[in-house]
Design a protein that fits this description.
Two copies of one chain form a homodimer. Chain A is of the alpha+beta class and about 230 residues long. Chain A folds into two domains: about 1-140, Jelly Rolls, CATH 2.60.120.10; about 145-225, Arc Repressor Mutant, subunit A (Orthogonal Bundle). Chain A has nine helices and twelve strands. In chain A, strand 4 and strand 5 (about 65-70) form a beta hairpin. In chain A, helix 2 (about 15-25) runs antiparallel to helix 4, helix 6 crosses helix 7 and helix 6 (about 145-160) packs across helix 9. The longest helix of chain A has 26 residues, at about 120-145. The first copy, chain A, is globular, with a radius of gyration of 19 Å. The model of chain A has no long low-confidence stretch (mean pLDDT about 95). Chains A and B meet through helix 3 and helix 5 of A and helix 3 and helix 5 of B. Chain B binds a DNA duplex (30 and 30 nucleotides) through helix 8.
DNA sequence: CGTGTAATTGAGTAGGGTCAACGTGAGTGG
DNA sequence: CCACTCACGTTGACCCTACTCAATTACACG
């Protein structure tokens, strides 16, 4: 357990007693694909860190539609802030893949923060990054067309969970997680139909290689052009 | 100066030496309506707190459209996180009104944080609240129609800078800041034309009393119904 | 009273949502 | 190994929301 904790960038550097305390209040959890880690509205009693696989946070709207707030990969914390506020989880967290997480009691995290202040600075930095990304998405959703948003979402995913693939000399980027049209729609604020149509267009143009729940970027540069709206229409 | 600082909730409670240090690196600034406090891309050397008036943070899109990230009123910090990262401001900050702000050098804020850790906890709470609001907006922009988003934006503003007005026994809520159709459009991710049309509808239905750059909510409850989509279409 | 900015309103249009039908691939069990 | 099933994906037709373009009006200010 201690070994896992010390590999998490957010926690590494903390003095041994602090880590020990955290370890005592941690538990490992295995999640099958599609399994729910916590549900929107549950009291937030623990903070979770992804150790393997990918996990996503979704919010349900009253109209039944789901919106993906974020996708979290290796060593990223989920539910970090809520735990500090003794609040309830703002969304539902679902494993996208066979995943393992380590769950640490909120109380232990709060203790660690007060005992080891630099920890708080790291938390602030993470929050800062998330807020910036949220603002980016707000800007996109407010002003940009679906194709462009989709291109950006795909590139963001590639950045986060992309792996380079060399197939007979050609380098491509594979999005390393199951990725349905539906989940892309929930990431970009559109419908799976529109996503499907756009991906088909890109496929025809040779930009990507899309399959069932998977996506390989063949020509990243051209996708960037779409994301930056540098293509003349 | 010290007096101003000690009235800011985020800083109140800090020990005197910390406040003294902050005060030495603070300066007051008066902003006329429309004046720019800082510009997108400027190096973030200071954190600002609103002492009077209102200020808004906007981001420019490549397509020329502006998006309002947030409106900040009494005692709210602007540029808080960026200063910690030695980064550049993510948007342009503009006074909506005749306003005064107190600007504190980023270095002094960082010193205060390390010398007085509880300060960081407060910062985390503020960031948490902002992130939640950002997620709300993402959810709205992804899934909801313009009229509903507009209703929510108006209610949020009322919550933040609304003042109750009693006119011969009738209680109404006035949004206490200059508020053009254009700025409402930038808050909701639409165009001023659509905002104008919807406000006209609401006006006709007697929900609001809209004028040039001002808005009074006459029947808040019905606006809530629209915001919650409880009106049968 | 003139001028500039904000607001209104109409007409036309397109992006993308909705509805619907069909195709396809991965498991599952006989 | 094949048939069955289910979830995922594709594509077409239609339509509506909201954007664009454009002209006009109202208001505040000097």
């Amino acid at each position: 357990m201690l070994d896992h904790l010390s590999h998490i960038p957010l926690l590494s550097g903390a003095p041994a007693p602090v880590l020990d305390d955290l370890a005592r209040e941690s538990r490992l959890r295995n999640l099958a694909r599609g399994e729910i880690l916590f549900t929107q509205g549950d009291p937030a009693l623990a903070v979770h860190f992804v150790l393997s696989g990918r996990v996503r946070l979704i919010q349900h709207t009253t109209s039944g539609q789901d919106v993906t707030i974020g996708v979290f990969a290796l060593h990223e914390p989920v539910g970090l802030l809520v735990a500090l506020e003794e609040a309830t989880y703002p969304g539902t967290c679902e494993a996208l893949d066979q995943s393992t997480v380590i769950s640490i009691s909120a109380a232990a995290i709060v203790r660690a923060m007060t005992q080891y202040p630099p920890f708080m600075l790291k938390v602030i930095k993470i929050l800062h990054a998330r807020l910036m990304e949220a603002n980016d998405r707000i800007r996109e959703l407010s002003a940009e067309r679906v194709e462009r948003r989709l291109a950006r979402a795909v590139l963001r995913l590639a950045n986060k969970v992309g792996v380079k693939e060399e197939t007979h000399g050609v380098s491509r980027i594979r999005i390393d997680m199951p990725l349905s049209r539906q989940s892309l729609a929930e990431l970009t604020g559109t419908t799976l139909h529109t996503v499907s149509r756009i991906l088909s267009d890109w496929q025809r143009a040779g930009l990507i290689d899309a399959g069932r729940e998977q996506l390989v970027i063949v020509r990243p540069h051209e996708l960037v052009l779409i994301a930056e709206e540098l293509t003349q229409p």
